[in-house]
Specification:
Elements (H helix, E strand, L loop, with lengths): L9 E6 L5 E20 L8 E23 L3 E18 L6 H7 L14 E4 L14 E3 L2 E3 L2 H7 L6 E5 L4 E11 L2 E11 L2 E3 L5 H5 L32 H8 L5 E3 L2 E12 L12 E14 L7
Antiparallel strand pairs: 1-2, 2-3, 3-4, 4-9, 5-8, 6-7, 9-10, 10-13, 11-12, 13-14
Helix pairs in contact: 2-4
Length: 303
């Protein structure tokens, strides 16, 4: 697809006396013009849509970098902080996609819709489990319903729940570095904020055809009252694709993805001068990456 220009950014660099604190701030706009998209045409032409350079996007972002030298001397301590924000929305796109594509593909790729982010997460409205049968329930014409075929086949994009971006809008990290004699230690804490994800769960059509299951099977509805503790539907007698789809693409499985992670830790020791080595520099170090989540906005036991 064609790409529009990233307009000249507005940038500012700054530093304090002695460069104890320094940083930069960059703010930019980005436009995508003449992107490939679909537009409706008169059926008399033999087709109902035309694919060409008719779509547009608009976005903006900010990049911030801050560095500080907190301690200078035998014991050194420095900190660097990065923060980025990026958001792009579709400003021109004439054709609405199939409703099921919005719910099933939105968190895995681009399903454009005017006025929404490029990567958007949508869901069917969720009305909970039937307290007598454990069947999943949605909404049909504004009323609670278990008519899965009608719910899925008649739903329009306007009937869906729009959660937000499926890609982080804010991201960055903070690295602290310590030095003492020949020893140096650094640790990076990263973060991703402002986005949503859909949790995978149980598809009974797969279970009933012996093609595999999911751990949520243990949390399924089994008796009246279970609807108060779980959203996993009861096991049906026969497979129903739309029954599965209503649950799997409902808002019950969408969660905020915001989290803070201990990204990495490194410990190094400078060997220069310790031994006679035929090298200008030599260092022994240990490095560990992706050490785990320190905080997350949801209670789902997923990384």
């Amino acid at each position: 697809s064609a790409r529009g220009p990233r307009l000249p950014p507005r940038e500012a660099d700054f530093s304090s006396a002695g460069n104890r604190v320094s940083g930069s701030l960059e703010y930019y706009f980005k436009r995508g013009i003449d992107l490939i998209g679909d537009a409706p045409v008169a059926p008399s032409n033999g087709v109902d849509t035309f694919r060409g350079n008719i779509a547009s996007t608009k976005g903006s972002g900010v990049d911030v970098l801050l560095s500080s030298r907190n301690l200078i001397g035998k014991l050194g301590w420095s900190t660097s902080l990065t923060m980025s924000y990026s958001n792009a929305k579709v400003t021109e796109y004439e054709v609405e996609d199939d409703t099921f594509n919005y719910v099933s593909l939105g968190d895995a790729g681009v399903v454009p819709r005017m006025g929404r982010p490029l990567y958007s997460l949508y869901s069917y409205r969720w009305a909970g489990l039937d307290p007598e049968t454990g069947n999943p329930r949605g909404y049909l014409n504004g009323a609670v319903s278990s008519d899965y075929n009608q719910i899925v086949s008649t739903a329009t994009p306007d009937d869906l729940v729009f959660h937000g971006s499926s890609k982080p809008l804010w991201y960055g990290g903070m690295r602290n570095s310590l030095t003492w004699n020949r020893l140096n230690i650094s640790a990076l804490i990263s973060y991703r904020l402002g986005y949503f994800f859909r949790k995978e769960s149980l598809r009974y059509s797969s279970v009933l055809s012996a093609n595999g299951g999911h751990g949520d099977f243990a949390d399924r509805w089994q008796q009246p009252g279970d609807e108060a503790r779980t959203n996993v539907p009861s096991m049906p007698a026969f497979a129903s694709a739309n029954r599965d789809n209503l649950y799997l693409y409902s808002e019950a499985l969408v969660h905020k993805g915001d989290h803070i992670r201990l990204q990495d830790i490194s410990v190094g020791y400078d060997l220069k001068g310790v031994f006679k080595l035929p090298f200008r520099q030599a260092q022994l170090y240990l490095y560990a990456n992706n050490l785990g989540i320190l905080w997350k906005a949801n209670e789902v036991d997923l990384d």
